[in-house]
Fold this sequence. Notes:
CATH architecture: Beta Barrel
Strand content: over 45%
CATH class: Mainly Beta
Distance between the termini: 40 Å
Number of strands: 39
Helix content: under 10%
CATH topology: Maltoporin, Chain A
Radius of gyration: 25 Å
Structural class: mainly beta
Number of helices: 6
CATH superfamily: TonB-dependent receptor, beta-barrel domain
Number of domains: 1
Low-confidence stretches: 1-22
Largest sheet: 22 strands, antiparallel, barrel
Amino acid sequence: MKIKYSLITLLALSSMNAEEVSLEAVSVTATKIATPTKDVSQSIVVVDEQTIEDKNILNIQEAIENIPGVNAESSTNSPSPRLIIRGAGLKARYGVREIMVMKDGVPMTDPDSFTRFDFIDMQDVSSIEVQKGPGSINAANATGGVIQLVTKSVFQEGDDRIKIGVGDDGQKNVNLKVRGQLGENDFASLTFSQRELDNDWRDNNDFDSTQVSLKHGHIFEDEATLETEVSYTESNMNIPTSMTEEEFEIFKETGEQHDTDAQWQHSARDSKILSFNTKYEKEIGDLLLKPRFYFNTWEHFHPVTGLINDSDDNSVYGTDLELNYNHKVFDKEAILVAGVTYKTDITNDAKKYEYADLNYVDETYYTSSGPRTRTVIGNTESNNKGDLAQIEDSTTTLYGLYLMETFSLTEDITIDMSTRVDKLKIDISGNEITAYDYGAKDYVTGAGLYSIDKTYNLFSAKLGAIYKLTDTTNMYASVATANQAPTGSEIESAQDQGISLDKSTNVNYEIGLKTRTNNLSLDLAIYQNDVDDEIIQIQDADGNVIYDNAGKTRKRGLELNSVYRVSNELDLGGSYAYSDFEFVTFEEQVGYGGGAEWVSRDGNTLPYIPKNQYSLFAAYRMENGFKARVTTKSWGSYYMDNANTQKYEGYDFVTDLMIGYEYQAHNIQLNVRNLTNEYYAMQASKDANGNVSYKAAAPQSFMVTYSYDF
Length: 710
């Protein structure tokens, strides 16, 4: 079994056509060594460059939404997804948690597991790999899996290109990619992208971004390589509100969302990010050295529920010093991957402000003595900053080491063993002057000076085995474990309630089958993931969010993913996921004021995750340049609450269409998302006290794109 690929081999593979890549994809995520996905002892899916181009993918969720076991939706139709892999990430109030996201081996996920997607330029991405479950040597403090974005290498030959797209809802897109050879051993490339989106069908949902990336590559006389990238992103995104049940009914009739009753009408995230990374590769006999260094600095203006975050002094530093060692075990080829990592995230003088422009209203509430009236915040009228509410400094540091050994017991059996040990240190200090109180629905006096100093020792490990049934089919089995530490914000929330959060422990058992023939690619996985000391999000009687280690969950599932080549022109494919996720131990608070009580949800199904999720696609490419692709996805019903009292019906056959034509250096295509203009919710939820809310999925949209290679 081949367990090593050179840089030249990788570049050759990346230039294959869609038919070749889709049936025998290569992963660089699961083992840090380029390996056919058939030879990886756990579930992994690769989205290839042709799929990215055909679907005109501009946001991460559009690339991975049809992968079984992945729940990827966005309420903004921009780079702000809700992303869940096999239930991991479900507890996140916003953003993405418990999942490691990497770009060319550089972690985009902060040490406390938060990921910003603002500075991903999908138009520079050549493939996306999704590895599901805990135990990866890449996944520091992330139990849900790894998403690796592989961009176009500066060493890879290819045409320069300009790409222009326009569509409804004010969609505009411009992308330019140029690459050149500066000398015998030096190469450079420039990528520029600009996007705009109005989304007039909904209030407060416009988006624009400008991104530029400069790469340089040098090949030394000893064939060692050095590749460096500097990139800058400026992104401005308004985030729409959720809807009540009555407002959702109006949306289902009209396809528009305006003048909702939500308090926080002006949420947003405006970001500026400057990043740098460099990687070096050098072979010394049987050793391959792969040191990597990276740095980024960012700022954002981020109005959210209750408060406005304004932070302009944030820096991230990190390194990954990796080596690969080819050797013999049992007189057969083996490889050892080893490395040490270090990453620190420093924030100085991060501020939170009250909203300046507020509309107050009178509200009736009930106590044991009868009804009372109080004045509360009705809604925001702008996202202008008001009085300073909080100031905070934080330093989050993660460092560790990893080892992975892959060897063959026999000609038909391959074993991989890996482990990773990390230390996570979170140091936060600040002054809370005022805070937003969910129960009072107004600002109250804050807790004053505070500090947090927490350290977590994190361990992950995996043992996997691959058995070669035939030349085209492998069977695998694996057991993996990993820890998940709480985030800084979760620790702060728990500390306010006198709770000391501990790390959770995941144990995942998985078996699967993978087949690769000239005409068929098929992956089947069956798994059970048990989580102890689950970090759960609950609400007290007044609606304040609390985090605790009060829960345990058991997640069982089956996933199927397949592509069949009917002819040289036509590919058919589909995926299916069955997810049976339940609380083993879990309590939440129900009721108001003195009448609140803790209620067990033991044995209930986790909300939001549908038991059945499937997708289908057909891709057609003719020799005369005509091409077409149809993709459809369906979510079954799911519970909206932990009590399992109400279900959302899900949606059926939400379909995307691409038709296009390629002629020499020219390519023109039409992409239509949500072809049948379904009006549905990307998320439906119900809190412990019966309050229902919906977040709308985007209705039909289209974009016409023209590109020219030169």
